[in-house]
Amino acid sequence: xxxxxxxxxxxxxxxxxxxxxxxxxxxxxxxxxxxxxxxxxxxxxxxxxxxxxxxxxxxxxxxxxxxxxxxxxxxxxxxxxxxxxxxxxxxxxxxxxxxxxxxxxxxxxxxxxxxxxxxxxxxxxxxxxxxxxxxxxxxxxxxxxxxxxxxxxxxxxxxxxxxxxxxxxxxxxxxxxxxxxxxxxxxxxxxxxxxxxxxxxxxxxxxxxxxxxxxxxxxxxxxxxxxxxxxxxxxxxxxxxxxxxxxxxxxxxxxxxxxxxxxxxxxxxxxxxxxxxxxxxxxxxxxxxxxxxxxxxxxxxxxxxxxxxxxxxxxxxxxxxxxxxxxxxxxxxxxxxxxxxxxxxxxxxxx
Length: 351
Ligand code: ATP
Prior knowledge:
Blueprint: E1 5-14, E2 23-31, E3 35-39, H1 46-54, E4 61-66, E5 69-70, E6 81-84, H2 96-106, H3 111-125, H4 129-132, H5 141-153, E7 159-163, H6 171-188, E8 191-196, H7 199-205, E9 208-213, E10 216-221, H8 223-228, H9 233-238, E11 243-251, E12 254-257, E13 262-264, E14 272-275, H10 284-287, E15 291-302, E16 307-312, E17 318-323, E18 333-338, E19 344-346
Parallel strand pairs: 3-8, 3-9, 6-7, 7-8
Antiparallel strand pairs: 1-2, 1-4, 4-5, 9-10, 11-12, 11-14, 12-13, 14-19, 15-16, 15-18, 16-17
Helix pairs in contact: 2-3, 2-5, 3-5
The structure holds adenosine-5'-triphosphate (ATP).
């Protein structure tokens, strides 16, 4: 059956030696024009998955489909996939322009069309005419990043793979390039699969994010859904800050938590309750909440736009709560209001 999927993975699995699979039974679908971010801690199998899709590695089991065509036996040069590596992997002896032209030359694109397409792409990524004539070592990290992106996009790939493309840039440049990358991908309309361990990058760039751990895709969803409604404790804790409290007992619509706290909600014993720090309400707003916890501030962190409090709400339980800078200080007694919609029951019990 024909689909609108540019990429489809079915049960993709790959091991190295006798170790547990680096990629384990992964299913995934990428719609045309979408940007998917694969997010996970170091060693979880992200790069291996990317290499399987690109054809740099063969799977032990499972299939890769590009636009509904099974490409398991198709060599990488015929897959028409663009790849941006973390270290850019530019040809050191070629100028930026020649680096970008390389793939077109290899495909036998005539010289005049080549020149026009290379210039248009270098315009698109914002490389000046002097920079185009320089070799990689004469370019900054951000400029090399633009060349790598132009080189991958100029061949008009069916799919673009990006392996930690912004990891080598310093923080300020990374944030700027993140916005530019989003805009470039949007205007070219390319379908992209990006690997990162930077949760901010994944949440801000992607249409959908997949969180990976131990070779498995734990959850795949839109960024907001992943953040607000994680399905496992690992996903909850990996994306942003989360207060995760275990349910000791559930009676009617009350949940009694380990450590002696209670709140309104429906769940079962051993579920975890997630409350993001920014969901607590303080001050007068707290008084209007159905559930209120009182505790003492044992630590404060000033973060610029907001302040993070560590609040001891029972001798055994400390939670993190956001407030406006100066709203509460060390040693203060505070009331944390918990609106019903601040409570998310994390169904998964293990990872
Ligand atoms: P990072 O974020 O650190 O790059 P990653 O999520 O991309 O990590 P992979 O590079 O895919 O992780 O590695 C997944 C697992 O497979 C790791 O345990 C790694 O040691 C192992 N692995 C990857 N490539 C090979 C290889 N060629 N030979 C043996 N083991 C490998």
